[in-house]
Every structure is written in structure tokens, then in C-alpha cells.
Amino acid sequence: MGRPEDVTQGILDASLVHPREVFRLAIREATAAIVLVHNHPSGDPTPSPEDIRITRQLVDAGKVIDIRVLDHVILGRTIRGSGRNYTSMREEGLVQFTGE
């Protein structure tokens, strides 16, 4: 695949994501796995309940079409005390990803 691909562009506090759009390029390129990444304009990289819900939906959709979702990373500003400006849902154990 080579480079990241924009799938959707949200508004300030929401983005509509559909598995069909997420996996379109991955299917066309015969990709075996993807990593989901998005930012929170607020700067807080903490996943929302909706982020977790859609991630689970995308993992399930990936299983159907045999494309692994490896992680979902949310970018933001540095979290006070942690020194990190992102959250990895895999690292945090928030979603059961394919192959775990």
C-alpha cells in the first residue's frame, strides 16, 4: 500500500465511518492487515465509547473479509503525566484485535 490513505474527514466532534469505506482500498490492494489511525482535535487521545464501538465493528468486518485490524491509534496532545500524545487501543486492551 505504501502510504496512509484518508478514508473520512470528520467535523469538529464527529466522523461518519463505514466499514465499506475503511476496507475499500485494502481490498483493492490485496492488503492482509490495516492499522486504523485518527486524531482528536480536542487534543485528548482518550478513546470515546463511539471510538471503541466502531473499532469493534471494524475488527468484526475485517474477520469476514480476512483483513486483520492490528490496532486503532488515536492521536492528540501529550497526556499529562504520561508523556504520550497517542492512545493505542491494542496496548490499552480496549478492544480484542484479530490474532490476540
Please give the structural blueprint.
Blueprint: H1 19-28, E1 33-39, H2 49-65, E2 68-75, E3 86-88, H3 89-92
Parallel strand pairs: 1-2
Antiparallel strand pairs: 2-3
Could you name the key traits of this structure?
single chain, alpha+beta, three-stranded mixed β-sheet, 3 helices, 18% strand
Walk me through the structure.
- The protein is α+β, with helices and mostly antiparallel strands and 100 residues long.
- Helices cover 31% and strands 18% of the residues.
- It contains three helices and three strands, in the order αβαββα.
- It has helices spanning 19-28, 49-65, 89-92, and strands at 33-39, 68-75, 86-88.
- Strands 1-2-3 form a three-stranded mixed β-sheet.
- It is globular and about 40 Å long.
- 19% of the residues are buried.
Q: What is the average of the pLDDT values?
A: 85
Runs in which pLDDT lies below 50 for 5 or more consecutive residues are none
Number of helices: 3
The run of helices and strands is: HEHEEH
Radius of gyration from the alpha-carbon trace, in angstroms: 13 Å
Order of strands across the main sheet: 1-2-3
Largest sheet: 3 strands, mixed
Per DSSP E runs of 2 or more residues, the count of β-strands stands at 3
Shape type: globular
* Proportion of residues in helical segments: 25-40%
| Class per helix and strand makeup | alpha+beta
| CA(first)-CA(last) distance | 24 Å
**Percentage of β-strand residues:** 15-25%
